[in-house]
Request: fold
Amino acid sequence: MKSKFITLTLATAFLSACGSNSTGKNELTTDSVAFSEKSKTAEVTIKADFPKDGNKTLTNIITEYISEEMGGTYDGKTDNPDSMVAFYCKREMAELEKLASEFETDSEAPLYYSKSVSKIYETDKFVTYASSFESFTGGAHGMHGSANTTFRKSDGRRFGSEMLTRTGTEEFRTLIKDGLKQYFAENEGKDISDEELKEQLITDYSVDFLPLPQFPPYLTEKGVGFTYQPYEIAPYAAGMPSFTIPYEKVKPYMTVTAVKLIENKDGK
Reply:
């Protein structure tokens, strides 16, 4: 079985440079750490952007968040990212190899698990992380998922559903419907009607009052982001329906505390 720390690819570095650097003031610098293991029957890759410098309270909270997103069972020193990532990689590898032995399969496709916790955007006031995974443990297809989390830089507070208000109003639910229509319109290559949207979904809810995603919203460069998981509201083939409601539209539904985070927003 092969184990190795991974040097991040140029593409990953490019995405990080384009999507997550601030203008320099109050910037949360990070170190990207990755570890992988591979055998005949299983393959695991774990990687994360660990905070390096900045508000100590914030860096501690984000480091704990990274560990929790990976499973929350690491009991070693949190100031040793290499040790943490290697621990979770080896744990997942052991579980996959056990599962593979129970299958007693000679399939050419090994079981696999990939987990990434990455900084995707920040301003002087907040930073947003994305936690995503892909896996294959047998069956017709693999699984994947993603959840993003926004932290206030001054004290590390996480922002989620509580940063929105009046989400049960008809006006707000129209924003959700329009966001989903935009997502499916991009896939279809044309605008879609309410009836066509309904045909894309696997929910009994009216398209005029669709449920919010199970994972909380998050702050992006252009607005508040929403992401549904596979099977949550649409078939697996639809992917993870996601969209961003522009700040100018969603601001009336944001709490005063949340609005303060986007005032004079300056980030990349």
Confidence is low (pLDDT under 50) at residues 7-23.
